[in-house]
Amino acid sequence: MLSFNLKYEDRETKARSATLKTTHGVVETPIFMPVGTVGSVKTMTPHEVEECGASIILGNTYHLYLRPGIEVLKKFGGLHNFMSWNKNILTDSGGFQVFSLSELRDISEEGVYFKSHLDGKRFFMSPEMSMDIQRCIGSDIVMAFDECVSCDLERSYFEKSVNLTTSWAKRCKGVALDSHQSLFGIIQGGIHKDLRKRSAGEITDIGFDGYAIGGLSVGETTAQMYEITDYTTDYLPKNAPRYLMGVGTPEDILNCIGNGIDMFDCVMPTRNARNGMLFTSRGKLHIKRKQWEFSDTPIDSECQCYTCRNFSKGYLRHLYKSGEILALRLNTIHNINFYLSLVKGARNAIKKGCFTTFKKEMTEKMTIGGDNV
Amino acid sequence: MLSFNLKYEDRETKARSATLKTTHGVVETPIFMPVGTVGSVKTMTPHEVEECGASIILGNTYHLYLRPGIEVLKKFGGLHNFMSWNKNILTDSGGFQVFSLSELRDISEEGVYFKSHLDGKRFFMSPEMSMDIQRCIGSDIVMAFDECVSCDLERSYFEKSVNLTTSWAKRCKGVALDSHQSLFGIIQGGIHKDLRKRSAGEITDIGFDGYAIGGLSVGETTAQMYEITDYTTDYLPKNAPRYLMGVGTPEDILNCIGNGIDMFDCVMPTRNARNGMLFTSRGKLHIKRKQWEFSDTPIDSECQCYTCRNFSKGYLRHLYKSGEILALRLNTIHNINFYLSLVKGARNAIKKGCFTTFKKEMTEKMTIGGDNV
Predict the structure, then answer these.
(1) Among A169, B77, B307, B342, which residue has the least CB neighbours within 10 Å?
(2) Which residues contact B354 (CB under 8 A, 6 or more apart)?
(3) Total-model pTM
(4) Please, what are the domains in chain B?
(5) Environment class of B132 (CB within 10 Å of its CB; exposed 0-12, middle 13-18, buried 19+)
(6) In this structure, are strands A25-29 and B283-286 parallel, antiparallel, or unpaired?
(7) Interstrand relation of A56-59 and A35-36 (parallel, antiparallel or unpaired)
(8) Does residue A253 have a pLDDT over 90?
């Protein structure tokens, strides 16, 4: 079971810092959770993930259900043991992937029929099944099964969807998990404030160990995302962790920490790394550019990651242009380290009471652009 | 400059153990050199290569000449610094790749015109140019530029080729290298013993810091390869290192150590790892097989590598089947560790005077097959 200890609250913003504790260790918030889709944070060993400062990673229930499958995870006694990761794991409910990756799906009150994105095989997922799968995965934080709605649908659809998500949340709460597991509820409602308020009320009434804001970063504007986040956290209890799902850029994370969010996940640092896009204290840097051919300096002179301690931009560009796997690895280590350093910086600033200054300085510096030297 | 100190000679075979020393450290022989084609041992950081026990790696002059190119290597003061590898580097001369990768080439006494395998651009390579490039790379051991001939050509071609290789070897010897660099000559002659004897005589007459047997493992039978190796080492001086280029399987390496070889390189452990084929003390193992789905034991219970210390065959199979880059990494670490443990085992056996027993026991055990549990 999870304990949540709120330690610092910023005076100027809604930013806060807390300690979240489970049987797999302590997580200091605000925190970023690297995404380990099918049992590895892409390109990284669990030891490298830990060395970058990660205390919790995210696993994808949908992907793990398809591969390696529940029987394998049961045999290994869960994902921690299977992948040799002894710190915290949060699993999403599978809802997002069922709705975004599966072309054909059929939603009813009972659950969702969907076709595997791998082989088109037909599967069924219900709130109860999502809980069962996450129990087999053995994640420390289990997410309730919700409906994640595309932002371009009509308001009437969101109304129904909030009802369905509440109904499913109650069913999730009714399923017994392992004693070490905690369950988070998810708030839906799109960009409609009244629906967000209603969803937050209904989900917090059921009562969970933590609360997530879902259905953002799905096509709405950044301003809308910030506004809805800011609005929704007002209706969430102070003494429970708040998780903004699937967000976002370094700027998004700083802003949403200011809006009262404790936990983040996003594929951006890992995926962009594999595409040669690096995050730096001066903003984005594109390692494949000709301008780096002869550069003997690290990606970011302020960075202490393994990549920046050992390799130059010239070498990283060469590896990337040559299609070497080591390029993807070193880029990923850097980006994950950057994200984790960013939230660490935010935590320290909150503790010292200077979060607004930290956020302003970081955001301004990142507008320079990492390619502009 | 290189110093070579022959320490142990086996009584029953031609196996021997020596210490080879350069400004980048000591190499105990017999040794296997992992291949770092374009400035990385594929998928591995230099620190991982070192952790597997490597004291020397091989770089490919042809590949490095095309990418990143000489100007970049000059700017970085050589390959060691560019790739953050502080131990020894041996570079091939580019000859093998010019003859095997380039479809169109035009050989004359002067040198070879060839087309880049990357973009078809026309290049020229001569013995002098190969030396110049290898001087810029800064490798500790430089290989003479030779003609590597396909084994299915007529004897008359091999005769001419031996003449050309000798002529080029003299020109290579005439080019000044950096003071820390040593130069190895290469013996050619295909599977023709008299030509091998003549080539060995001509090349050793010129006089080099070490001698390589080239033009094997290019299509001849394994028995022919062993026989020519055994025959040729009789015409090489005892007090200089002997390098068998491009060889081979674990069994090949054990046999050719017995035939008096000190140094080996081969892409097999790295390339096969990326194809899911693992070397074990019981022979080859194919990690993608269904039989490993639920296996919670390591690849090789006798192996001490990072992969075997931390991960099960079931997890490795899952990663491989899921197309995860971590699979390629963990497989490569295991195979490189296996090759380096094999030559370490051979060194220890030579020192203890039990090389024949070691070779027999290892070879027999490897016939079991790693998939047969």
Answers:
(1) B77
(2) none
(3) 0.97
(4) 3-266 (3.20.20.105), 276-360 (no CATH)
(5) middle
(6) unpaired
(7) parallel
(8) yes
The pLDDT of residue A364 is: 98
* CA distance, residue A273 to nearest chain B CA (Å): 13
Do B65 and B78 contact (CB within 8 A), yes or no? no
Q: Does A324 touch chain B (CB under 8 A)?
A: yes
Name the residue of chain B whose CA is nearest to A325's CA: B43
User: Which residue of chain A comes nearest to B313, CA vs CA?
Assistant: A82
Residues 6+ apart with CB under 8 A from A48: A306, A333
| CB atoms inside a 10 Å sphere around CB B324 | 22
Mutate to test the interface with A, among B37, B45, B288, B295 (most CBs of A within 10 A): B45
Nearest neighbour of A40 by CB, restricted to B75, B83, B326: B326
Active site residue B265: yes
Which residue in chain A has the smallest CA separation from B332?
A325
| C-alpha distances out from residue B179 to A69, A367, B89, B174, B183, Å | 59, 48, 15, 14, 11
Asked whether this complex has an ipTM greater than 0.95, the answer is yes
- Alpha carbon A112 to chain centroid, angstroms: 23
Q: What is the pLDDT of residues B239-295, one digit of tens each?
A: 999 999 999 999 999 999 999 999 999 999 999 999 999 999 999 999 999 999 999
Classify B87 as helix, strand or coil: coil
* Cβ separation A330–B45 shorter than 8 A: yes
Q: Where are the beta strands (DSSP E) in chain A?
A: 3-9, 16-22, 25-29, 31-33, 35-36, 56-59, 88-91, 105-107, 112-115, 122-125, 141-143, 182-187, 210-213, 242-244, 263-265, 277-280, 283-286
The closest CB to that of A324, out of B42, B311, B321, belongs to B42
Is the N-terminal amide bond of A248 cis, ω within 30° of 0? Answer: yes
Taking a C-beta distance cutoff of 8 angstroms, is the pair B181, B139 a contact? Answer: yes
Residues of A with Cβ-Cβ distance to B314 under 8 angstroms: 68, 72, 75-76, 82
| Contact status of A102 with chain B (Cβ, < 8 Å) | no
